[in-house]
Amino acid sequence: MMKIAVVGSINVDMTVTAERIPKKGETLRGDSLHYIPGGKGANQAVAMAKLGAEVEMFGLVGDDAMGVKMIDNLKAQGVKCDHIGTVKGESTGTAVITVGESDNTIIVVAGANGKVDKNYIDGVKDALLAQDMVVLQHEIPLETVAYIVNLMSEHGVPVVLNPAPAANVPAEIVEKVTYLTPNEHEAVLIFGEGASTEELLRKYPEKLIITQGSRGVSTCLADGTILTVPARKVEVVDTTGAGDTLNGAFAVRRAAGDDMEKALIYANAAASLSIGKFGAQGGMPTAEEVEEVLNK
């Protein structure tokens, strides 16, 4: 079995549901409040574990009750947590999410995630280099992401970088990652307004994968064909974590040896299943559920 590492954020999502998202200065009555395990890193690790992969999470939590709960949750989902550290006097990362009208707004407080630095990476370096693939996002410091990309590149370990939340990615990092998976907004921030989606994809065949929400996901195959896998039509319950599910599922299938097309069809199906249920991790499908959809 392939070993996949995720280095990234471990958050608690404080999710409030309401009939709609409030306007500036407005007070609304909420319907419900949930404390849900989250963080892009942890979400992607759970997505992969649910799909049957051997996954280890690397990152930091605060020395609070939520930190303990988040690690317990990861373990319960089948994610290895031997190298997750605790930062004294720091809170566990928190995302405050408002869900209404099939959409959401999110404010993230980094907490311990902001302390995932080069020193931490140096301490877990051997464990990371023993992996078959490393998955990264932008909810830990960007200089740490660059440090890991350089380290993995030197040692020939494939890297998936999901550049979210949106931030600039230096050209050198774009060259060194194996796969880059921005959405359209993130792609514009990285590459500028000038080029069309198709031009960008052609420039980075089988590396750049652009997710386009309800229009599906696109990449350029090695032979120059632009592949777009359309989104499956599903009833939207909660879109939180759909991108994390897609990234996790894609990493699992590529690590297992699937070609790009097969891996993206699988990832797309997994993401579509995730938006049919509430909560980022709660909605993530098992391998059996994805296979069932693909066999229809």
Automatic annotation (TrEMBL):
Domain of life: Bacteria
Record has Oxidoreductase as a keyword: no
GO molecular-function term, one example from the UniProt record: ribokinase activity
Active-site residues, Swiss-Prot/TrEMBL: 244
Keywords: ATP-binding, Carbohydrate metabolism, Cytoplasm, Kinase, Magnesium, Metal-binding, Nucleotide-binding, Potassium, Transferase
Ligand binding (K(+)): 238, 240, 274, 277, 279
Cofactor: Mg(2+)
Keyword Coiled coil: no
Binding residues annotated for substrate, in chain numbering: 11-13, 39-43, 139, 244
GO BP of this protein: D-ribose catabolic process
Family: Belongs to the carbohydrate kinase pfkB family. Belongs to the carbohydrate kinase PfkB family. Ribokinase subfamily.
Subunit structure comment from the entry: Homodimer.
Record protein name field: Ribokinase
Organism: [Clostridium] aminophilum
Source organism phylogeny: Bacteria, Bacillati, Bacillota, Clostridia, Lachnospirales
